[in-house]
Design brief:
It contains four helices and two strands, in the order ββαααα. The chain is mainly alpha-helical. Strands 1-2 form a two-stranded antiparallel ribbon. The radius of gyration is 22 Å and the shape is elongated. The two termini are about 20 Å apart.
Length: about 170
Amino acid sequence: MTTAAPPQPTFENGEFVPSRDVPFSPELDALIHEIRAGEAPNIGRFCGYCSAPLGQAAGCEVCGESTSRTEPLDKIDRELAQIYVAKRKREALFVHSGAWTGILLATALSILLIVFLPGWTKVFAIMTLVLGGYFAGVFFGNVLAQTPAYRSGLKLFAQRWSEYAATRASQ
């Protein structure tokens, strides 16, 4: 038995476009984060297919599902929330790894400056450690790692979503 490859996220002009196959909702992601932090209750009106917040809308803007075809949900499924959390953790891994790489490179440069600079000029090594560590961490973590982190998180979401949807369909 062969398994189908998970759907791939769609990007137009560099921006993610949600689809029925990859129905990631930034609003639901933020809501799940608030629920986990204890800042919001797990109650509301959500799409019956992808669980995106509906408000009073008759259809879902994320997956295109109609409320007349699929009954809206009143709370977010725990398994789905775990998929969103896994996506955030994947993104955090990329960003934190990039930031630590920048900090370690600045530290290595600072150590080299301590070894090779004479006398009072070793002060530049301290400035390199402090300022260089900060700016290198920001550059590697936020500038270089942010886009790959987001794309990798969406790929993980797509894979886990397809497994989740298949399990739900078989029940």
